[in-house]
Write a structure and sequence with these properties.
alpha+beta, two-stranded antiparallel ribbon, 5 helices, 12% strand, globular
Amino acid sequence: MKRLTELIALIRSGDVHKFYTSPEWRRKRREIFERDHFECQVCKNKYKRYTKATTVHHVKELRQFPLLCLSSYYTNESGRKERNLISVCKYCHETECHPERMGKYEKKKPLTEEKW
């Protein structure tokens, strides 16, 4: 329990890298991959295809919900148990889980159009 308190303090201080390299997270990550058979849960459930998972995603965002950092499940507003940690592929992690990140990678229009 003391170690969990330390991990939560790391997250709250903004040092999520130390959390993601901790032995506790590595164990939990492995547990989630095994539970999900190393398959991307978004590809499997939304697109009906099988893709190898490379990331374990926090459904309840880590910085907003540090108390759930190692919780496999959470209880939603209706009192229903939901998955908090899911295995996803790199593509789904960026496009489905964090679409807000995609804007910085989109090609922007030039300020002026070149006429060569």
